[in-house]
Amino acid sequence: MTRGRLVIISGPSGAGKSTVVRELINRSDLPLKLSVSATTRPARAGEIDGVHYHFLNQSQFNQLREDGEFLECKEVFGLGYWYGTLRNKVATGLEEGSWVILEIDVQGAIAVLDQGGLDPITFFVHTGGLDSLESRLRGRKTEDEAVISRRLTTAEEEIQLMHRYQYEIINDEVDRAVEEIDQRLSRHRENREH
C-alpha cells in the first residue's frame, strides 16, 4: 500500500476552512481523511467524542503534551482551552494510505512545518482581504466585539506568514476554492505516480 500524504489547510479564523474541507472530502476522489483534533473544550450539544474532537480533560492533555504526543498544540484565543493534533492518529492515517488533512490555525501549521520531515502539501485559505474577513466574522453573529477585534489582529499577523505555504486559496466562492484545492492535490498524486 502506498503511504498517504499530509495536507495542511489553514488560514485566518472565519475564512471558511471548515466548509471548504467538508466539501473537499465529499467531492474528491482522493482518499482524504480529516484528522480529528484533541481539545480540553467541553463537548457542545451534538458533538461526538472521536468524531468531532477527542475530548480530554486538562490533566490528560498535559500528560500527552509532556510525552511529546502532539504534532502541534496550543491554547486558542486566550479562552483557556487547548487544541492539538495527535501524532499517532496522523501516522496511522498515513500508513493506511489516507491523505490526512490537518485543518489547523496558522501557528499550528508553522509548528508542523518547522519540525521538518513530514513533507506536507500546504494551503493558505483566506477571504481575499481583512475587510471581507471582518464582514464574515460579523455576519456569523457568534462573537462579541472584543473577540472579533482579536481575530482580525491575529489574521493580520497570519497573512504575513502566507509565504510559508505552497498554495494561496482565496475563498470568495466555496465551489471554486474546493475545485482549486482538489485539482492541485490531484496533480500531486499524478506526479507521485509517474
Textual characterization of the structure:
The structure is a single chain. This protein has 194 residues and is α/β, with parallel strands linked by helices. The protein is 44% helix and 20% strand. The protein has one domain: P-loop containing nucleotide triphosphate hydrolases (Rossmann fold). A five-stranded parallel beta sheet has the order 2-7-1-8-9, with helices on both faces. Strands 4-3-6-5 form a four-stranded mixed beta sheet. A hairpin with a 6-residue loop joins β5 and β6. The two termini are 16 Å apart.
Summary tags:
194 residues, alpha/beta, Rossmann fold, 5-stranded parallel sheet, 4-stranded mixed sheet, 44% helix
Structural class by helix and strand composition: alpha/beta
CA-atom Rg in angstroms = 17 Å
Question: How much of the polypeptide forms β-strand, as a percent range?
Answer: 15-25%
Number of domains: 1
CATH topology: Rossmann fold
Counted beta strands: 9
CATH superfamily: P-loop containing nucleotide triphosphate hydrolases
Major sheet strand order: 2-7-1-8-9
Query: Major sheet: size, sense and barrel closure?
Result: 5 strands, parallel
| Overall form | globular
What is the top-level CATH class?
Alpha Beta
The gist of it:
The protein has 194 residues and is α/β, with parallel strands linked by helices.
Question: Helices, strands, pairings?
Answer:
Elements: E1 6-10, H1 17-27, E2 32-34, E3 38-39, E4 54-55, H2 58-66, E5 70-75, E6 82-86, H3 87-95, E7 99-103, H4 106-115, E8 121-126, H5 130-140, H6 145-159, E9 167-170, H7 174-193
Parallel strand pairs: 1-7, 1-8, 2-7, 3-4, 8-9
Antiparallel strand pairs: 3-6, 5-6
Helix pairs in contact: 1-7, 5-6
